[in-house]
Amino acid sequence: MNNFSKEVMHVGEMASGAALTVPVYRIKGDSDAPSVYIQANMHGAEVQGNAVIFQLLELLKNIDIKGNITLVPYANPVACNHKNGEYTLGRFDPITGVNWNRMYHFDESIIKPFVRDSIGKDDATIEANFKQLMIEKIEQKLEHNIFGLTTGQRIAYQLQRLAHQADLVLDLHTGPISSKHLYCPEYAQESAQYFDIPHTLLIPNEFGGALDEATFCPWWYLQEAFTELGIKFSISSKALNKESFTVELGSQEQIDLDVALDDAKSILAYLQYKGVIAAPEYQPQVMTRYGCYLKDYKAYYSPMGGMVDYLAEFGKPLAAGEPLARILRMDNYHFGTDDETENGGPLHYLSLDHEVLPILHFASASVNQGTELYKVFTNFFEL
Ligand SMILES: [Zn+2]
């Protein structure tokens, strides 16, 4: 196993002086095949990815590895340890309230000057220079920021420095109570069929601070800037191959090592397709895969407070008018039908007026009016 190594990355310090560290596992490939960066647990309660990384490491011991692979479990030690009672919080920095997965960096203004300087150079040189530029920009942020960084930025930028070194990036998350789903850049739609994930969100070229966007948007902008000048530079070509995904592995607050083994095999099928590994035994499963554009991914907010009985099954198209959930309001329970009608009664069925594909729902049965109850695909289609 001399191509396997482990390093401990220092990402911050607690008030007591205790070091915040993240383990980084690297496997060296034996060729210049595409490289991959995989991290898990940026959000504290989304722990299944750690189990998937465990299973990946176990499987990779017996696989012919072509491209470099970097694996980072427990990517955010602050979020990972952020408990309140029996629950893990860890979606937002408790001090600033900012979502931990909105702190990555990309400055679009680097694109135009870079393209101007790159005209006439070959693709491989452009690729190497652009990678270098992105890493330099992150290092500048990390090391030459006289006003300092927030706790979250310091963690995010160090992870991003590792991610920029790879061609392919997988950020492992989970939903609250959720089906498996994939955030996939629109240009990489073809790759979605290599994951054993039945639901894919196709996302546009808009940077909002997440790791997947921070790693694919720069390349997509670069391609577009060249295209505007009539120069062909394809980030989907075999030679360049730049893709990033957020992989939503199911529900928060739980790990399942058997499911993690399936998830690891699904990732290996994708890596096999991309040539990162030479292991043709890993192939995607045959399944119906649904796609949906991000603009058609809708949150449904509870029209009332109450106790929710979630009815709609994930991944099964729900016809218009069929109940999504029913809400129990015991304060409206009366011994007399007159009162019942007046107050709306104890049971309320919630439905939508068009067909949807339920993807995830809120983690608790008690909700306030306006709570994000379900997230659903609308205008979905088979991939
Ligand atoms: Zn997440």
Automatic annotation (TrEMBL):
CDD domains: M14_PaAOTO_like. Keywords: Hydrolase, Metal-binding, Zinc. Residues 33-272 form the Succinylglutamate desuccinylase/Aspartoacylase catalytic domain. PANTHER family: BLL3975 PROTEIN. This is Succinylglutamate desuccinylase. InterPro entries: AstE_AspA_cat, N-alpha-Ac-DABA_deacetylase. Its cofactor is Zn(2+). It comes from Thalassotalea profundi. SUPFAM superfamilies: Zn-dependent exopeptidases. Pfam families: AstE_AspA_cat (PF24827). It comes from the Bacteria. The keyword Hydrolase applies. The keyword Zinc applies.
